[in-house]
Specification:
The protein is an all-alpha fold and 996 residues long. It is built from 47 helices and no strands. One of its GO terms (molecular function) is small GTPase binding.
Length: 996
């Protein structure tokens, strides 16, 4: 088996598909054999095997343990546990060692402590730390050894697995284990910390210092795991853990020392032989300790807030946040306080935010009845109040705004080299945390927690900027400071609303800043644009044309791409604003569209094109038919942009979205765009297309708009009905819009279209009526209404399966009232269209499905027809049901006659609605039929013309006997024939209807 397994692993790494697939198949076959995991371990440990095969064996072993361990024999388990723990320390390849360590962790999850009690004694013995109780001298083994690193990583993996257990028993077991491990790991951590600090201080390159730093980093990770997960959370128990009082402050002191030495190597005050090789590992270890503080605040807030821990931690965080690049945080005394390290400063801001937003420290003192708990809360609030004094808050805000939020040299270089990338990283949301983004979050948290003080400090900065004059005001440093301050004003727009007269500030300060006379001024111009967007609610109506003029004639035409894209983003904010007025923007619309099209055509970054399309679509939405004069320019650039989009689905979605809105703006004139639109539709609506998963829905929306204003269906459009039907047969994911598209095909194409495509459409509808839920049924039934008005009465038998499915669902109690009303409306339409077929179809269904019990079928039908109709808010549907029910009486079925009073009561009640203002002449037929559906999702925009689709539906309905005169005449005819016998109250109601 060993040889076969080794060969399969090597084959699985082949570049040839056939060999690789064969190797994978052999592995799947061998995994069920006894000794499979042991053979994988043998390959992973064998030095003669290729590196790729060894690492693949380690990966397969790791996953095999997760999958097969419970079914592995006890003997093989013992063998694997022993071999893994004995051999992992001697593995040379890092990749193999990592996967074997992870495998040990997964075994520990299953077997510790019941079947593997010797795990931790053996591990600690290998680490040379067994029996040590802490201190720098714990253990005799050199920390630079590879085996120490391997065993330390095994300890980390095992602790991570055990700490991740969520059942109470597993958590208690890990907490008990932590009490035993903490002194040992603490001793290792102290010893490693001392050696790392010495190596940093002296720059000594003797020995393998990289291994030392890696071991220290692993020790820090294990300490974090033990302290955070190894103790019960005290957030609700208020039980302070005494171990933290000693361990955490010492850990913080270690961090400060190593931070000082690490920063000194970066500044070049010590030998740099150590830093390039080991610096990243040292930095990761320091960040891990900071994350320990952050997690403590969340999990153990009361153990953190004790004076011994919180005061030095807060001071350390304050120094980091207040520090500046290339200098210490306090008076340049590098020995007295930490020196600026960007990653540490960022994480310090995150920890400070977690302290300020902690719900434990902000809880009401009066809600705590227990004196000890109340004392803890009072102490925490007093401690934080003392720390966040006015001086500290001011220093942090000044540093954050003037230093950390300011543009750096790297930012300005990127602006020049890659302007579009700079814009999207800084202005449209950066998923990677940066010093600036963390500074902005911290400032927002200060605004939330200390609003009055923060606003006061920001106003001082604003006044300083406004009062600055002379050469110093135009220096590059002052421009950077002003840009950062304006950024702060963007973030604090809501809080500064009552303190700043924005119109006066704009006229007095911002207009001057918008000058592009110097190249450096573009920094301010960009930020002023965003300031306008952030303060859009404070821009008065009479000032908006001035802003539009500024955007159209100065910012959007600017040659600098960053400013151009910033203006694009600001324009979107103003158009999307509640106070946007079309008449104000109309004079600037041509220039706006011209500049947006230029950006779309010349931008090399797809994100820039997507952003511009977003603004373009918004203009089309808000301006509607006013865009018609510029439609040719917009449509003409679509093919080129579509071709360049290649596999950029997001950009193609924006193109389809823009064309969907353009169809709504053009109305009946949209037929002129078919030469461009139809190829887009053919690509996007095809459910088998390469990008159908991402763009199919947007293609359907565009097709819906095309059909809404189409005069006729050409063969290319008709072909797409097959795509829609195929998708509806596969899935109901896009049923709302797909059903309306199919309905649109029938409305536009009429009988000629149905004669060609009826088999495909009827089969699709049959499958849908058997598959969709009640909500889906309300989306499908409007299609039947159109079919019954268009398709020849003589061929309605082709829909026999559909009628049977609808009747079957009509008999189901679980159907919603809305769905039942839609179904019975279809049968009312059928009775109006072909009463004889209606009667035959009901009789056939009763015979085949109900054993000939027609009374049961008619009883259910009349019950839904009369009682459930009141669930519909549509007067049109109720009047349709009224007429259909009157005609159904001509069948003279005994079940109808026995329920005559019930039927006449409903008919006369509905007849009274003809006296009301919402008579048929005042009803929007399309809206009434699609009651309860959000039509705005599919037709948001109005071209100012009559909607051809709605007009076609109204023409279909105009021939129906659904008006008062016809209803009265139908009733009078049946009364005169004796079909209806009215007496008592019903007779009076009938007379009232006739006289009304």
């Amino acid at each position: 088996m060993y040889a076969e397994l080794k060969g399969a692993l090597q084959a699985s790494l082949s570049i040839h598909d056939e060999a690789r697939n064969h190797g994978q198949q052999v592995l799947r076959t061998l995994e069920n054999q006894v000794g499979y995991l042991s053979c994988l371990l043998q390959v992973a440990l064998e030095a003669e095997s290729g590196g790729g095969a060894r690492e693949l064996a380690g990966i397969t072993l790791k996953h095999g343990i997760s999958k097969l361990w419970r079914d592995t024999s006890a003997e093989e388990k013992v063998h694997l546990r022993s071999q893994l723990l004995d051999q992992v320390g001697g593995v040379v390849a890092d990749g193999v060692a990592v996967h074997l360590s992870l495998g040990i962790g997964r075994i520990a999850r299953y077997d510790f402590p019941e079947e593997w009690q010797e795990l931790f004694p053996l591990l600690l013995q290998k680490l040379g730390a067994q029996g040590s109780s802490g201190g720098a001298g714990a253990g005799a083994q050199q920390l630079e050894d590879v085996s120490t690193k391997r065993n330390m990583y095994v300890l980390h993996c095992v602790m991570k697995e055990l700490a991740s257990k969520r059942l109470p028993a597993g958590r208690r077991a890990f907490q008990e284990l932590s009490q035993q491990l903490l002194p040992v790991v603490w001793g290792l951590f102290c010893r490693a910390s001392e050696e790392v600090a010495n190596a940093l201080r002296t720059g000594n390159a003797e020995g393998n210092k990289l291994l030392l730093c890696q071991v220290w980093h692993l020790c820090a990770k294990c300490m974090k795991r033990l302290l955070v997960s190894g103790f019960p959370s005290d957030a609700k128990t208020y039980q302070v853990h005494p171990q933290f009082k000693e361990v955490v402050p010492q850990t913080l002191e270690i961090l400060k020392v190593i931070h000082q030495q690490y920063a000194a190597t970066l500044l070049g005050t010590t030998s740099q032989a150590f830093a390039p090789q080991c610096g990243p590992q040292v930095l990761r270890g320091m960040l891990k300790i900071l994350k320990l503080l952050r997690d403590m605040v969340e999990v153990h807030p009361w153990s953190f807030i004790i004076v011994e821990t919180s005061v030095p931690a807060l001071e350390y965080l304050f120094f980091n946040i207040s520090s500046r690049p290339n200098s210490s945080a306090h008076g340049g005394q590098t020995g007295a306080s930490p020196i600026f390290v960007e990653d540490i400063c960022m994480l310090s801001m995150a920890v400070m935010q977690s302290i300020m937003r902690s719900s434990a420290y902000r809880s009401s003192v009066h809600r705590e009845a227990d004196p000890s708990k109340r004392q803890l809360v009072e102490g925490a609030q007093q401690l934080l109040s003392n720390f966040f004094c006015a001086e500290r808050i001011q220093q942090m805000i000044y540093t954050v705004v003037s230093v950390h939020m300011a543009l750096k040299e790297d930012d300005l270089e990127k602006w020049q080299v890659s302007p579009e990338e700079f814009h999207h990283e800084n202005d449209l949301g950066n998923f990677n945390e940066t010093l600036r983004s963390e500074s902005e979050k911290l400032l927002c948290k200060f605004l939330e927690t200390f609003k009055e003080q923060t606003v006061s400090i920001l106003m001082k900065l604003v006044n300083e900027v406004e009062s600055a004059s002379g050469a110093n005001a135009s220096s590059f440093e002052s421009l950077l400071l002003k840009e950062s301050l304006y950024n702060a004003m963007c973030l604090a727009a809501y809080d500064l609303h009552d303190c700043v007269n924005f119109k006066a500030f704009f006229d007095g300060q911002l207009v001057k800043d918008l000058s592009l006379q110097r190249e450096e001024n573009k920094i301010i111009v960009r930020r002023v644009a965003y300031l306008l967007a952030a303060w859009v609610a404070d821009v008065p109506e009479d000032m908006r044309p001035q802003v539009y003029n500024l955007l159209m004639h100065q910012l959007l035409p600017c040659e600098d791409v960053v400013i151009k894209l910033a203006a694009c983003a600001v324009l979107k904010v103003f158009i999307d604003d509640w106070n946007f007025h079309e008449d104000q923007f109309h004079p600037y619309m041509q220039q706006a569209l011209h500049n947006l099209l230029l950006i779309i055509q010349h931008a090399y970054d797809f994100d820039s094109q997507v952003q511009s399309f977003n603004v373009l679509c918004l203009i089309l939405e808000r301006m509607g038919p006013r865009v018609k004069p510029f439609a040719n320019d917009i449509v003409a650039m679509i093919p080129e942009v579509w071709q360049k989009a290649e596999d950029q689905s997001l950009l193609k979605i924006q193109i389809l979205n823009a064309m969907h809105r353009m169809m709504q703006c053009l109305g009946a004139s949209s037929v002129s765009t078919y030469n461009i639109v139809i190829p887009l539709l053919h690509y996007s609506v095809n459910p088998d297309g390469p990008e159908s998963v991402s763009i199919f829905e947007d293609g359907l929306l565009l097709l819906r708009s095309v059909l809404q204003f189409a005069v006729e269906i050409n063969p290319q459009l008709a072909e797409m009905s097959l795509f829609v039907s195929k998708h509806m047969q596969r899935s109901t994911e896009y049923l709302p819009v797909a059903a309306k598209v199919l309905e649109g095909f029938i409305l536009v194409g009429g009988l000629p279209f149905l004669q060609v495509h009826h088999m495909n459409i009827f089969q699709t509808l049959f499958e849908l009526t058997n598959a969709v839920n009640s909500r889906g049924m309300t989306m499908v039934t409007p299609i039947f209404d159109v079919i019954l008005q268009v398709f020849p009465q003589s061929e309605l038998a082709l829909l026999e399966g559909v009628w049977g499915s609808l009747l079957h669902r009509l008999m189901q109690e679980q159907e919603s009232d809305e769905a039942l009303v839609h179904i019975v409306c279809v049968f009312a339409r059928l009775a109006i269209t072909n009463l004889a077929f209606f009667s035959q179809m009901l009789a056939k269904f009763a015979k085949e499905r109900l054993g000939g019990n027609e009374d049961l079928l008619f009883g259910r039908l009349i019950y839904v027809w009369t009682e459930k109709a009141y669930a519909s808010s549509s007067a049109l549907k109720r009047k349709l049901l009224c007429v259909g029910l009157i005609l159904a009486l001509d069948t003279n079925h005994s079940s109808l006659q026995s329920r005559l009073d019930q039927i006449l009561d409903f008919v006369l009640y509905i007849g009274q609605e003809f006296k009301m203002p919402n008579s048929l002449e005042h009803i929007d037929v399309a809206q009434e039929w699609h009651e309860g559906e959000d039509l705005e999702d599919y037709a948001i925009y109005s071209s100012g013309e009559e909607d051809p689709e709605a007009a076609r539906r109204s023409r279909l309905w105009s021939a129906d006997p659904v008006n008062k005169a016809q209803v009265v005449a139908m009733l009078q005819e049946r009364v005169s024939k004796g079909t209806l016998k009215l007496g008592g109250e019903l007779s009076e109601r009938f007379k009232d209807l006739c006289s009304g």
